[in-house]
Amino acid sequence: MTKSGTWLVAGFLMGAVFSTHAVGISCVVAQTRIDHMICDSKALVKADERLDRTYQQTLMAAADQAALIRSQRAWLKQRNACADSVCVTHAYVDRLTVFKQVKRAEWATFRDPTLGISFNYLANRHVEQLCPTRENERCVALVGKGVGISDYFACSSW
Questions:
Q1: CA distances from 100 to 6, 62, 146 (A)
Q2: Domain ranges of the chain
Q3: Most buried one in 36, 54, 132, 150, CB count within 10 A?
Q4: What is the mean pLDDT of the chain?
Q5: How far apart are the C-alpha atoms of 152 and 154, rounded to whole Å?
């Protein structure tokens, strides 16, 4: 693929490690009043699981991930102030509606004629072209929220 080297194209594990800003409730270690209220209701447990999945997906694609994290933290404070399960249910429904309105990141294109690659990626990530642990190689990696520790997914030996 290149004049001078061997290519390694590995799978890129974008969803392997998610942000820990809004992990769903673990009923095994429920500690707060609101955790117990949710864990005592199968419907609220399912709502919490759905909200967590939707939040993680929305965060991965959000144009402004930091703003989404801040708004999620504020929402959690509001939800935690609920006095009953009706209030919590409404909080979940309202939050899911908000997620539908979050602006998605645009697509960007990376091209490197030297490496002979071109690919599209969400612009809420950025491309790094360093190989800090690989001497005499040139690499490309995507980094950003929800990506975790990025494996280099395209490398060329010189």
A1: 43, 11, 19
A2: 7-14+105-157, 27-101
A3: 150
A4: 78
A5: 6
Q: Angle 42-61/65-80 helices, nearest 10 degrees?
A: 160
Q: What type of residue sits at position 142? A: L
DSSP codes joined into one string, 26-59: -GGG--SHHHHHHHT-HHHHHHHHHHHHHHHHHH
* H-run or E-run covering 156: strand 154-157
CA pair distance 157, 4, nearest whole angstrom: 7
Q: How far apart are CA 152 and CA 141, in angstroms?
A: 5
What's the number of CA atoms in the CB half-sphere (13 Å) around residue 94? Answer: 12
CA distances from 27 to 35, 48, 56, 66 (A): 7, 11, 19, 28
For 87, other C-beta atoms within 10 Å of its C-beta total: 14
